[in-house]
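User: I'm writing a tutorial on reading structure tokens. Could you give me a worked example: one chain, its sequence, then its tokens, then a sentence or two explaining what the tokens reveal?
Assistant: Sure. Here is the example chain.
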Amino acid sequence: MSDKTTEQNEDIVTLTSPEGEDVEFFELAVIELDGAYYSVLQPVELPEDMEEDEAMVFKITQTPEGGENFVLEADDDVIDAVFAEYNRLVEAQN
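And here are its predicted structure tokens:
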């Protein structure tokens, strides 16, 4: 998925799938990890195989035009580290 578009509500991110479908996500957080940025996203309409407390991690990269590209992260170690930092930030807010 790529081609980020931000809607009126800054917490909603629309990504375009490789099939050309627009999918809306709630952006829960942006996490910096080892000099890279990751977005923790949850689909606005949850798929049947996804629980309400689950989210996805996308690496944010820059396009040559200066825009942002969101790439679904596949490395389990990176995903775990992003969620650990996300959980630490959530706990710090409480």
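What the tokens reveal: Helices lie at 76-93. The mean pLDDT is 88.
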